[in-house]
Amino acid sequence: MYSIDINLLNDRPEYGQQVVSSASYDSDDKTPLFIGLGVGGAALGLVLIGFGVMSFLNQQLVAEEENLDSELALLAPKLAEVDDLKLQERQVKEETKALATIFNQIKPWSATLQDIRDRVPPTLQVTKIQQKAATPPAQAGQPNAQAATVAALSAPTQLTITGNAISFNDVNDFVLTLRKSPFLTVAQTQLMSSERKTDQKTQVSLVQHQLETTINDVPASELLQILNAKGASGLAARIGALKQKGVMNP
């Protein structure tokens, strides 16, 4: 008998193709391992180098800080000396300014009297001038000696002028003339009384009058020419020297 062998698998395409074997891995090749170790070593080296640089810079900063601290310790006494000198300079400036203020508030009595004398009309006679210092304004707190002196000089000085005149017009002219004085306060120069009286012995009829005024607060530095003209050249020279030194404003 005859037998027929039929291989059905050979007739199917997927089984009829030749199977290609994959490439085999050689376990003896160490190249990837060396590459990985090299990269890791390089990274570790960079970290160590960075740490070393940071440590070096930190040591330099610490050394510089210690050096600065030592220099500051050496400069501390000198800085304290400079502060002390600045304090002394400020005190001297304050005292000089106070002295300049005192000079600037002074109105020489001789110059004031000379100015009043120059303004007396020929037909009027001044028989008496009384000076009365007004009470200085109260100071807040406890004032020092310089502040008290400046306050006393800044307080207005009241003058009472008594005299005789031939006529009432002479008295009025005298009041108007005094109001033009650079030493006196215009608004406070007032006629207080005037009365015609006859002397029983001489039978001379005169107008007896009394007026009041106050010395103004115009700084003496603004009256230098007038002070020189009225005989107070010494004060004018002192104020001029203070202006040249910059203690007073020119």
Structure in words:
The structure is a single chain. Strand 3 and strand 4 form a beta hairpin. Helices cover 51% and strands 15% of the residues. The chain is α+β, with helices and mostly antiparallel strands and 250 residues long. The radius of gyration is 54 Å and the shape is rod-shaped. It has two domains: 33-105; 107-133 and 154-245, 2-Layer Sandwich (Gyrase A, domain 2), CATH 3.30.1360. Mean pLDDT is 79; it is low at 19-25.
User: Can you tell me the CATH topology of the largest domain?
Assistant: Gyrase A, domain 2
Oligomer: single chain
Number of domains: 2
> What global shape is seen?
rod-shaped
**β content, as a range?**
15-25%
Span between termini? 153 Å
Query: What is the β-strand count?
Result: 4
Pfam family, one: PilN
Keywords: Membrane, Transmembrane, Transmembrane helix
Protein name: Fimbrial assembly protein PilN, putative
Transmembrane segments: 33-57
Q: How would you describe this structure in keywords?
A:
250 residues, alpha+beta, Gyrase A, domain 2, 2 domains, 7 helices
Blueprint (SSEs and pairs):
Elements: H1 13-16, H2 31-105, H3 109-118, E1 124-133, H4 145-154, E2 157-165, H5 168-178, E3 190-198, E4 205-214, H6 224-229, H7 233-244
Antiparallel strand pairs: 1-2, 2-4, 3-4
